[in-house]
Amino acid sequence: MTSVPGTVSSILLLLLVECAARPFYPLPSRRNDRSKQPLQTFRPYNIAHRGSSGEFPEETASAYKRAIEEGADFIETDILASKDGILICFHDLTLDATTDIAQHKKFESRKRTYEVQGKNITGYFTIDFTLEELKSLRVNQRSPFRDQQYNGAPRVVGIYPEIKNPVFINQHVKWPIGKKFEDKFVDTLKKYGYKGTYLSKQWLKQPAFIQSFAPTSLIYISHLTDLPKILLIDDATTPTQDTNQSYWEITSNSYFDFIKDYVVGIGPWKDSIVPASNNYLQTPTDLVTRSHAYNLQVHPFTCRNENVFLHFNFSQDPYNEYDYWIKKIGVDGLFTDFTGSLHHYQEWTNPFSMGEESASKLLDKIAYMISKFRNSYN
């Protein structure tokens, strides 16, 4: 599923990024000021899905760096664990699709079949490899949450880590003193200063959302940290990871009334908010309206610029899609693979936004007008 923390290394998370909010830029005389601009909170959040993954390989240093440069408010990443209990930034439970593991004969015996959420999956699982072995597969390690300044960002950028498949990880990875995946996850966040309730002074300094598809994991974590949490919600056919509850159960009013004490919002698959038929959007559900009634934010996933992912309603224009979700549906944030395009949309449509170049030009015009006035007056 971001400190003066900054980017990350390849597929292991650098879950800290103290970068920043873009709308308000310093005057020319203050442009060398080292202070970061604050996180923007006056419009829906631009959440970089595994970094700028539409332009660079997902969950890599390049993808995170690009997303920050393009205006992301939060860097989203998935957190798993190696055999020796090291947190890694990686989306898939298996290495098959994203590494050349099949070409490493020495690891042939590591192929396993495990039950994951009621289904048998066969492959090379991250939980069967130590960190050093993962590095030999070009999984370049850098400790998640490592404190590192990203010098190119003039604003605070948050992190949005997902605690990935916690039930499965806890079954196969053991930490000392009886700790769980969730304990390791939160301990690491605390180590690097991530804490504070939503919009508190501490949170605004180092913003972070914790996300998961596992409700009981989020409830457990809520007793360990006051950081805001987001319950991810899959499509209507997929039950929850840990409680086996149906989509209809976890989107009911009674469940929202229960879960609002533990989370600040939900992250639903966008087609569960507005169903589609033959690639055309149908009548929106009341999911967003009901969520807001329980003071829950809604951060749908995932917007993508490629035509194959755009519903016909948007005429192959991603900016039309952003406009639809933000203005008509009224979401509070969007996961996107193309951080730059969402940033451009929000800058173009928000009257309070002004790029540094535009601000500089405006100041130059004002200075010119003043000088003309003085000259004519004199």
Automatic annotation (TrEMBL):
In which family does this protein belong, per the annotation? Belongs to the glycerophosphoryl diester phosphodiesterase family.
Where does the signal peptide begin and end?
1-21
**Which residue ranges does the record assign to the GP-PDE domain?**
44-346
Q: Which reaction does it catalyse?
A: a sn-glycero-3-phosphodiester + H2O = an alcohol + sn-glycerol 3-phosphate + H(+)
The gene behind this protein is: LOC113742524
Source taxon at top rank: Eukaryota
Q: What is its EC number?
A: 3.1.4.46
**Record's PROSITE patterns?**
GP_PDE (PS51704)
Q: Which organism is it from?
A: Coffea arabica (Arabian coffee)
Matching entries from PANTHER family are given as:
GLYCEROPHOSPHODIESTER PHOSPHODIESTERASE GDPD5-RELATED (PTHR43620:SF7), GLYCEROPHOSPHORYL DIESTER PHOSPHODIESTERASE (PTHR43620)
**A GO molecular-function descriptor:** glycerophosphodiester phosphodiesterase activity
Q: Tell me the protein's name.
A: glycerophosphodiester phosphodiesterase
A GO BP term, please?
A: glycerol metabolic process
User: Which EC class is this protein assigned?
Assistant: hydrolase
Q: Which UniProt keywords apply?
A: Glycerol metabolism, Glycoprotein, Hydrolase, Signal
GO CC annotations, alphabetized: vacuole
